[in-house]
C-alpha cells in the first residue's frame, strides 16, 4: 500500500466529520441570522403588519360615530331665458335672454348625541378588531419563524447526508484505484474493476442528487427570508434538540399564548358587540343640527330682481323604529346565533389544539427514542467501516464486504440525520402550537 493510498484512507475517515471543502468555504448562516432576516423582510409579515396598522388607525371616536359631522356646501346656478309678465293693470313686461342667478353657500353641523349606545359598542368593537389584527400578526410571525427553522434544519439534515455521500465517493474512488492496480498486475479480474467503477458512478449520482436537493432547499429558505434566492451559504451541523418538553406545560402555554385561541376569543367578543349594536336599533336616535347659510337670487324680471339672506339655523330631531316588518327581531336572532357560533369556534379551536398537541407530543417522544437508536447504529456502522477499510488495506476482505460496510455507514448516517431532523421538527411544531417558539 503506497503512501498515497494510505492518505486516501485517512481522508475518507476525515470527511465523515468535516464535510466537503466547498461547503466549508461558503458563508455560515446561523439560525439567529436567518430568523432576523425573515422578521425584517418576509412579505407575509409585512402584509399582516399593514393590516394591523389599518386596524389601529380605525380605532377612533369619529369612526365609531361619536363626533359631529361638519359639511360645507356652495351652489351657484345661472340662467338665460325669455320672460313675459302681465301685471294686474294690464301692463305687459317682456325680457329677451334675461340673465338670472342663484347663489347659496353655508356650513352645517349634525351630531348624533344618542343612538341607543350603539356608538359605544362600535368603539369597543374597533378596539377588539385591533387586538384581532395583532393576534393575526403574531400568527404570521410564528408561522414564518417556524418555516425558517424547519427549512434551516432541513438543510442541516441534508448537509449531514452530503458528508456521508462524500465519504462514500472517496471510498469508492479508492476501490477503483485499487482494483485498477490489481488488474494491471494480474491479481484481479476485470469484473472487480467494473464493479468498483459501477459503485463509484452510483455514489456520484447519489451525491449529485443530494447536492441538487440541498441547493433547492437553500433557494426555498432564501425565498422565505425574502432575499436573493441565488445566495449560497452553509448552516451549522448542530440540531440541539430539547428533550425536556412536557405536554402539561405546552397545553397551559397554548391556552394563554396560541394566536388561534386569542383570535377565537376576540371573535366572540366582536360578535357580542355586534349584537349590542343590533339591539340598539330598538331605541330612539337623537340628532342635533345647526348651521349658517347665505343665499342670493337675481332675476331679470319680476317684482323683485334681487334678494339676499343669511343667518343661523339650529334644531333637533329624533326618530324611533316602531315597525319594520319584523326585521329588527330577525336581525337580533341572527346576531344571537353569531354569538353562539363564535363560542362553538372557541371550543372547536381548543379541541383541535389539544388533539394537535397530543399527536405531536407522541411523535416527538418517538423521534427522541429513534435519535438515540440511530445514533448508536451510526456509531456501530462507523466502527464496522473503519475495521473493514483496514482489512481491505491488508487485502484480507472482499470488495463485496467493503461495499456492504460502505452502504451500511451511509444508510445509518442518513437515518440518523433524518431522526434528528424529525425530532427537531416535532419540537418546533410543539412550540409553535404553544405560541412559544423561541430559538
From TrEMBL:
PANTHER family tied to this protein: OUTER MEMBRANE PROTEIN TOLC
Organism of origin: Nibribacter ruber
GO terms, molecular function: efflux transmembrane transporter activity; porin activity
Family in the record: Belongs to the outer membrane factor (OMF) (TC 1.B.17) family.
Gene Ontology cellular-component annotations: cell outer membrane; efflux pump complex
Lineage: Bacteria, Pseudomonadati, Bacteroidota, Cytophagia, Cytophagales
InterPro entries: OMP_efflux, TolC-like
UniProtKB keywords: Cell outer membrane, Coiled coil, Membrane, Signal, Transmembrane, Transmembrane beta strand, Transport
Subcellular location: Cell outer membrane
Keyword set includes Cytoplasm: no
Leader sequence residues: 1-25
Name of the featured protein: TolC family protein
Primary location group: membrane
Superkingdom per UniProt: Bacteria
Pfam families on file: OEP
Record's keyword annotation contains Protease: no
Coiled-coil spans in chain: 332-359
Amino acid at each position: 500500500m503506497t503512501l498515497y493510498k494510505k492518505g486516501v484512507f485517512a481522508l475518507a475517515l476525515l470527511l465523515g466529520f468535516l464535510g466537503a471543502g466547498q461547503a466549508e468555504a461558503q458563508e455560515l448562516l446561523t439560525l439567529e441570522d436567518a430568523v432576523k432576516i425573515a422578521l425584517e423582510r418576509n412579505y407575509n409579515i409585512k402584509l399582516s403588519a399593514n393590516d394591523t396598522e389599518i386596524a389601529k388607525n380605525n380605532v377612533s371616536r369619529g369612526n365609531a360615530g361619536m363626533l359631529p359631522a361638519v359639511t360645507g356646501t356652495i351652489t351657484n346656478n345661472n340662467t338665460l331665458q325669455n320672460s313675459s309678465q302681465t301685471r294686474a293693470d294690464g301692463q305687459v313686461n317682456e325680457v329677451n335672454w334675461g340673465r338670472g342667478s342663484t347663489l347659496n353657500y353655508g356650513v352645517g353641523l349634525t351630531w348624533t348625541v344618542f343612538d341607543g349606545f350603539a356608538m359605544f359598542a362600535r368603539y369597543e368593537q374597533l378596539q377588539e378588531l385591533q387586538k384581532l389584527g395583532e393576534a393575526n400578526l403574531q400568527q404570521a410571525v410564528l408561522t414564518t419563524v417556524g418555516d425558517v427553522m424547519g427549512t434551516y434544519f432541513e438543510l442541516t439534515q441534508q448537509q449531514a447526508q452530503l458528508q456521508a455521500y462524500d465519504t462514500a465517493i472517496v471510498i469508492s474512488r479508492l476501490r477503483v484505484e485499487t482494483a485498477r492496480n490489481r488488474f494491471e498486475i494480474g491479481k484481479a479480474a476485470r469484473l472487480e474493476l467494473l464493479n468498483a467503477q459501477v459503485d463509484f458512478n452510483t455514489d456520484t449520482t447519489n451525491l449529485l442528487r443530494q447536492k441538487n436537493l440541498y441547493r433547492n432547499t437553500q433557494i426555498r429558505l432564501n425565498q422565505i427570508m425574502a432575499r436573493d434566492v441565488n445566495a449560497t451559504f452553509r448552516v451549522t451541523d448542530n440540531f440541539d434538540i430539547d428533550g425536556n418538553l412536557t405536554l402539561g406545560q405546552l397545553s397551559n402555554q397554548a391556552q394563554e399564548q396560541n394566536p388561534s385561541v386569542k383570535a377565537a376569543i376576540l371573535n366572540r367578543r366582536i360578535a357580542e358587540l355586534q349584537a349590542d349594536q343590533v339591539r340598539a336599533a330598538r331605541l330612539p336616535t337623537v340628532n342635533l343640527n345647526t348651521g349658517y347659510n347665505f343665499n342670493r337670487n337675481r332675476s331679470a324680471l319680476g317684482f323683485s330682481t334681487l334678494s339676499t339672506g343669511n343667518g343661523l339655523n339650529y334644531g333637533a330631531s329624533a326618530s324611533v323604529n316602531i315597525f319594520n316588518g319584523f326585521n329588527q327581531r330577525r336581525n337580533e336572532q341572527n346576531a344571537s346565533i353569531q354569538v353562539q357560533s363564535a363560542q362553538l369556534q372557541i371550543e372547536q379551536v381548543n379541541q383541535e389544539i389539544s388533539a394537535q398537541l397530543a399527536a405531536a407530543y407522541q411523535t416527538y417522544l418517538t423521534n427522541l427514542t429513534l435519535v438515540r437508536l440511530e445514533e448508536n447504529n451510526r456509531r456501530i456502522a462507523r466502527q464496522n467501516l473503519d475495521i473493514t477499510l483496514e482489512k481491505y488495506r491488508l487485502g484480507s476482505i472482499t470488495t463485496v464486504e467493503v461495499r456492504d460496510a460502505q452502504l451500511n455507514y451511509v444508510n445509518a448516517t442518513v437515518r440518523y440525520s433524518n431522526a434528528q431532523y424529525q425530532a427537531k421538527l416535532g419540537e418546533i411544531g410543539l412550540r409553535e402550537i404553544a405560541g412559544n417558539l423561541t430559538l
